[in-house]
# Entry
Amino acid sequence: MNVLVTGGAGYIGTHTCVELMEAGHEISVLDNFSNSNPEALKRVSEITGKEFPIHQVDLLDAKAVEGVFSQGSYDAVIHFAGLKAVGESVQKPLEYYMNNVTGTLVLCQAMQKHGVTRLVFSSSATVYGTAEKMPLTEDLPIAAINPYGRTKVMIEQILTDLAASSQQFSIALLRYFNPVGAHKSGRIGEDPSGIPNNLTPYISKVAVGVLPELPVFGNDYDTPDGTCIRDYIHVMDLANGHVKALEKISSTTGVNAYNLGTGVGYSVMDVIHAFEQASGVKIRYRVTDRRPGDAPVSYADATKAGNELGWKAKRTLLEMCEDLWRWQSNNANGYQSQR
Ligand code: NAD
Ligand code: UFG
# Structure
């Protein structure tokens, strides 16, 4: 298939571009590089040995988006482009609603105009909000607790309405759990700007000496070691989930949500220990107050993706940490390190 990948220069996007091309698909990337570096796409070409069209376009620029669809003939779109920092979304809600929701509307209008009706959307486990019934299943009500999460809930609803309006549309809403790790080559990986918000990029920056110590946000939760539990998933397993979703939506219509997680929860301390084992580096940490809004426990029931997409996460927490360490130790300053 010929696939347009929005946000294809980002963390999950780059890994998915590799997986798509290795599965025989052709890709074009649309990205405004607001949270990514063109170098990442050069490295995708280096890994796959394939060149592909890159459109430096902002999804809010309807004319430019229209131009991308006029130039190419796409069988499907995978839509990663969006802003994703929970804390920042609380400070800048309008920016988040504008970028994520309006950006998606602009994209969908161009798709509809050009008869492109297959879409895979990056949703998030954050749509389950404060649900306490574990593991999380797709049929739970969705209600997020911060502006970022609400953009995902709104977009899921918009796409559901779109699919209901026309039998042509076929849409997969992929609810990611916590992506970790990097491509085996160590050439592409997560490259957050500034101080990372998320656990594993923070740990890896402590390991390379860019940051002094990891704050562990609370060890008084009702969990075996007192720290929060999450469902960490290797980014290449996640990338493969997109290839499987693409195959699925080629032969179906309507809208479907799928959890992409391993179904296994690990604590913050488990992750620290796995990373220490993978890297041989002792991680300095300090227990601090709880971070507001953190759920004590979150992990997926990924049965639906197994049954309907034929997908299952394969890689272990140790592999996630080994691959993250290879990327981070070879690229201490991300894509600005060496070439
Ligand atoms: P990322 O920031 O690395 O990638 C997003 C890409 O989208 C970036 O390259 C950015 O430049 C681009 N972009 C943003 N706004 C744009 C716009 N208006 N026009 C064009 N390009 C734009 O993020 P990621 O971690 O790869 O996440 C990809 C998607 O998955 C996002 O939608 C995110 O919300 C979702 N998601 C991520 C996680 C996670 O933990 N990483 C978890 C759940 C869901
Ligand atoms: N944590 C720390 N110290 C840190 C960072 C995180 O102890 O410096 C802890 C958190 O308290 C939490 C766990 O590590 O218990 C994971 O935190 P992350 O910030 O890495 O991930 P979250 O589960 O909070 O959220 C992430 C994304 C969301 C997304 C969600 C589910 O940030 O956008 O995964 O996909 F919705």
The two ends are 31 Å apart (CA to CA).
